[in-house]
């Protein structure tokens, strides 16, 4: 039986946290793309006081149907208190 969406999210967040050493702040989305799943997350890149000044990175994480990590990429950076993002990729 294939994993549920909950299981896929748990697998993706656990694996990206292990690989990057960063804490997952928020799951912002999950979508199916052809033969893989795209999980969008915000990770705490730098903790600050006050917390509104934390630096968050938005990451796309790709998983196969069994929940195995296929790849990841940081897409944007922002301060927790900001409503806009700064892209870190070229033209994406």
Low-confidence stretches: none
Characterize the main sheet: 5 strands, antiparallel
Series of H and E elements: HEEEEE
CATH class term: Alpha Beta
Structural domains: how many = 1
Radius of gyration: 14 Å
Strand line-up across the major sheet: 1-2-3-4-5
Q: Which architecture does the CATH hierarchy give at level 2?
A: Roll
In CATH, the topology is named Nuclear Transport Factor 2, Chain: A
Percent in strands: over 45%
- The number of distinct β-strands equals 5
Amino- and carboxy-terminal Cα gap:
35 Å
Q: How many helical stretches?
A: 1
Coarse structural class = alpha+beta
Structural shape: elongated
What is the arithmetic mean of pLDDT?
Answer: 89
Task: Report on this structure.
The chain has 92 residues and is of the alpha+beta class. It has a single domain, classed as Nuclear Transport Factor 2, Chain: A. Helices cover 17% and strands 48% of the residues. The protein contains 1 helix and 5 strands. The chain has one helix at 5-20, and strands at residues 23-33, 36-46, 55-63, 69-79, 86-87. Strands 1-2-3-4-5 form a 5-stranded antiparallel β-sheet. A hairpin with a 6-residue loop joins strand 4 and strand 5 (86-87). The N and C termini lie far apart (35 Å).
Question: What's the SSE blueprint?
Answer:
Blueprint: H1 5-20, E1 23-33, E2 36-46, E3 55-63, E4 69-79, E5 86-87
Antiparallel strand pairs: 1-2, 2-3, 3-4, 4-5
Concise account of the structure shown:
The chain has 92 residues and is α+β, with helices and mostly antiparallel strands. The protein is 17% helix and 48% strand.
């Amino acid at each position: 039986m294939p994993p549920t969406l909950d299981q896929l999210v748990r697998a993706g967040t656990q694996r990206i946290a292990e690989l990057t050493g960063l804490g997952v702040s928020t799951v912002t989305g999950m979508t199916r793309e052809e033969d893989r799943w795209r999980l969008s997350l915000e990770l705490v890149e730098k903790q600050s006081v006050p917390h509104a000044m934390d630096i968050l990175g938005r990451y796309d994480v790709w998983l196969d149907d069994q929940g195995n990590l296929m790849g990841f990429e940081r897409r944007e950076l922002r301060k927790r208190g900001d409503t806009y993002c700064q892209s870190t990729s070229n033209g994406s």
